[in-house]
Amino acid sequence: MSTSDQNPAKSYALSDIRHDQAGFESLVRLYAALKAARFANLEIDMSRVGWFDADMCAPLGAVLYRTGSHVNKVSLVHLQPQVETILSKNGFLSHYGRLTVRDKYGTTIPYQRFDVKDDRFFASYVEAKFVQRTELPRMSTGLVKRFRESVFEIFSNAVIHSQSKLGIFSCGQFFPKRNRLDFSVADLGIGIRRNVLDHTDLDLPPDQAIVWATSERNTTKRGPIPGGLGLKLLREFITLNEGRMQIVSDAGYWSLEKESVQTALLSAPFPGTVVNVEINTADRRSYAFTSEVKEADIF
Amino acid sequence: MEKGLIISPYEIVGSPLCVASDDGQKVFERLAAAVKEEKSVTVSFRNVTSLTSAFLNAAIGQLYGSFSPGEIRARLKVKDMAPADLALLKRVVDTAKEYFKDPGRFSKAERAALRGKNA
What we know:
The complex is a heterodimer. By secondary structure, chain A is an alpha/beta fold. Chain A contains 8 helices and 8 strands, in the order E-H-E-H-E-H-E-H-H-E-E-H-H-H-E-E. Chain A has a single domain (10-282), classed as Histidine kinase-like ATPase, C-terminal domain (Heat Shock Protein 90). Chain A has helices at 21-34, 57-69, 81-89, 119-131, 141-161, 192-200, 206-213, 230-241; strands at residues 10-13, 41-45, 73-77, 108-114, 168-175, 180-187, 244-257, 260-280. In chain A, the strands form 2 sheets. In chain A, strands 4-5-6-8-7 form a 5-stranded antiparallel beta sheet, with helices on both faces. A 3-stranded parallel beta sheet of chain A has the order 1-2-3, covered by helices on one side. In chain B, the strands form 2 sheets. In chain B, strands 1-3-5 form a 3-stranded parallel beta sheet. A two-stranded parallel ribbon of chain B has the order 2-4. Chain B has helices spanning 9-13, 21-36, 53-59, 69-75, 83-99, 108-117; strands spanning 5-7, 17-18, 41-44, 50-51, 76-79. Chain B is globular, with a radius of gyration of 13 Å. Classes of the chains: A alpha/beta, B alpha/beta. The A-B interface holds A 117, 119-120, 123, 127, 142, 145-146, 148-149, 152-153, 155-157, 159-160, 217, 219, 221-230, 233, 287-291, 293-299 and B 15, 17, 19-23, 25, 49-55, 57-58, 61-62, 64-65, 69, 72-73, 76-79, 81, 83-84, 86-93, 95-96, 98-100, 105-106, 110, 114.
């Protein structure tokens, strides 16, 4: 009988991973190469990776977790020291047999996998690893609240829409010199294109399905609980904050920056959906709404 | 409006983070039971620090599937909300009213079943 331990390892090379379209393209190519593997020893050759944006551990972790669910053993090999350090600090490599290294500069929000029922665990993680961390940048109270609620919206969106059975993956990274905080959430669910098709009969290309889902008033939600606000709220916040938002689902890529939306088709599908937000931590808006809304006018 | 019940999401959820749809469902069940019995009820958001549309859709938006806007307006009040949270709730309510106008999303049978379940 052949087992994974007796099989010679198959190697797959990865190149630099930045949180942009090219970075996502590399990850979907990796998934395309790995997805048929069963009962195999798989090595991800990291020798050509000189830069890895740490928040991209969420989609990479999702790809490797899906691959592992097909009874494969996945190893990351030949890591360059600077990449090994960052992926050790955020705990990613501890999922692949290595030790976590202390993050003495406190710029990472650790890599973590959640089950879809882990809403409260996720909330605690955001509180402990982001909100209550004194090393992270000083941000206005209003910005912290909006950021925190935005990542909860992303997580809730994955819980409600993805039908992911293998979990939800998240990771973040602060870039002090650029005043940017990146946070990514990936799921291994059915994706936006399939969701739109199943619930509206609109058979859209994957990138256009994301355009549809992020547009005002559109929702795939059916049943007794209304929906359709989460991604729109996120989009509004990112626009105000002058940050950036990216969504990858199936083979669709969508990004929003400076009020401009870009879409593209990737060469292969991602096995779920990724939402990445990059917030401008130097934003000094109070986010304290001077709203006209009064309690008596709500209903 | 008679002096009514006060319902605290903080107490029901057991946390200042009212973010999960499942937690919103717990609040909804109490609100729906009260409105069904024609009781006046105030939702106090005191001590709640984070809210999401997912939570508010389940807790309050969902009421529009079982009750008319008039019934809800007559029975339900909110208090102790920050202006930003109030603005979010208003959007949730407006979205819910639109959502339940589309019969394809929520059939009369589902509506009746839900109303019966909350009796």
